């Protein structure tokens, strides 16, 4: 009997040892993150400057050398209003977010919930070798070209496999690092090429079409994404607020009155376009 008890106890100890070994595995080993990308060799600002003409022509160019760029996620697809893209901005020398120069979009397809991998405040490094830098509607992007429904080549997202080998998450998310630049209507109208894409805040703002939904306007039984004017301190930017029918808040009703509005300021063919990351980007003010 003692022999069997000893064997049972030994077996239990062995199982416990195995379980402890399993539990002590490196939980930071992310299968969706590249490893050892290396230190940054360029900045987002330098990248945008180097490929300025390519971006403004809505073309693209492949990177053939090991170039590493770093940025912090300021917007993702958490509500469905942004699709297959995250947006990053650069850092200043003191480690704060650069809110004076625009960031860049990073396209990734094959992953339906990018926000779970790249929450706001997550620092990432991207090895650009093999990827493309270019523009879509003159907005700067990192990704790969694709053929659209008209048979034309356009700048689009990279594949999931490319993401796994080219994008490395650095440390844990620091959402407190992400701050929005306050913008006036005049700045949006006249400085959009420098700012976009960037997380911004519009204060003392009003959205047109109060009483209507953000999107899902029915025309002949169909639903469409929608644009709305935004007035900031009495000055209006036409068709600034864009909402996709895929956004979780697309059917929500636009409330009348003054608001503080956060969002990703981008552009399409030179025209400014603001996208809410979620409905929480709208802060209703007491009027």
Concise synopsis of the structure shown:
With 287 residues, the protein is an alpha+beta fold. Helices cover 19% and strands 34% of the residues. The protein contains seven helices and 18 strands.
Question: Which terms summarize this structure?
Answer:
287 residues; alpha+beta; OB fold (Dihydrolipoamide Acetyltransferase, E2P); nine-stranded mixed beta sheet; seven-stranded mixed beta sheet; 19% helix; 34% strand; globular
What does this structure look like?
By secondary structure, the protein is α+β, with helices and mostly antiparallel strands. The chain has two domains: 44-177, OB fold (Dihydrolipoamide Acetyltransferase, E2P) (Beta Barrel), CATH 2.40.50; 181-284, OB fold (Dihydrolipoamide Acetyltransferase, E2P) (Beta Barrel), CATH 2.40.50. It is 19% helix and 34% strand. The protein has seven helices and 18 strands. The chain has helices at 2-23, 44-50, 52-56, 114-117, 160-166, 185-190, 192-195; strands at 60-62, 68-75, 85-89, 104-107, 123-127, 132-136, 139-147, 153-156, 167-170, 181-182, 198-207, 217-219, 222-224, 226-232, 235-243, 259-268, 271-275, 282-284. Strands 1, 2, 3, 4, 5, 6, 7, 8 and 9 form a nine-stranded mixed β-sheet that branches. Strands 10, 11, 14, 15, 16, 17 and 18 form a seven-stranded mixed β-sheet that branches. A two-stranded antiparallel sheet has the order 12-13. Strand 14 and strand 15 form a beta hairpin. Mean pLDDT is 89; it is low at 1-27.
């Amino acid at each position: 009997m003692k022999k069997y008890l000893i064997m049972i106890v030994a077996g239990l100890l062995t199982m416990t040892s195995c379980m402890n070994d399993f539990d002590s595995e490196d939980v930071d080993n992310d299968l969706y993150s590249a490893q050892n990308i290396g230190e940054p060799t360029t900045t987002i600002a330098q990248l945008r400057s180097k490929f300025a003409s390519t971006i403004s022509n809505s073309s693209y160019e492949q990177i053939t050398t090991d170039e590493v760029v770093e940025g912090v996620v300021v917007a993702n697809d958490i509500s469905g209003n942004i699709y297959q893209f995250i947006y990053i901005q650069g850092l200043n020398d003191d480690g704060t977010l650069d809110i004076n120069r625009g960031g860049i979009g990073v396209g990734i397809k094959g992953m339906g919930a990018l926000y779970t991998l790249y929450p706001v405040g997550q620092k990432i490094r991207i090895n650009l070798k093999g990827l493309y830098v270019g523009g879509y509607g003159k907005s700067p992007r990192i990704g790969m070209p694709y053929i659209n429904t008209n048979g034309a080549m356009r700048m689009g997202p990279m594949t999931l496999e490319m993401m796994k080998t080219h994008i490395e998450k650095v440390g844990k998310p620091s959402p407190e690092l992400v701050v929005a630049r306050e913008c006036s209507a005049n700045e949006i109208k006249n400085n959009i090429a420098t700012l976009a894409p960037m997380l911004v805040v519009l204060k003392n703002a009003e959205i047109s079409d109060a009483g209507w939904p953000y999107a899902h306007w029915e025309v002949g039984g169909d639903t469409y994404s929608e644009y709305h004017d935004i007035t900031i301190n009495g000055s209006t930017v036409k068709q600034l607020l864009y909402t996709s029918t895929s956004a979780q808040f697309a059917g929500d009703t636009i409330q009348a009155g003054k608001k503080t509005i956060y969002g990703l300021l981008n552009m399409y063919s030179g025209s400014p376009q603001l996208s809410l990351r979620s409905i929480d980007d709208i802060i209703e003010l007491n009027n």
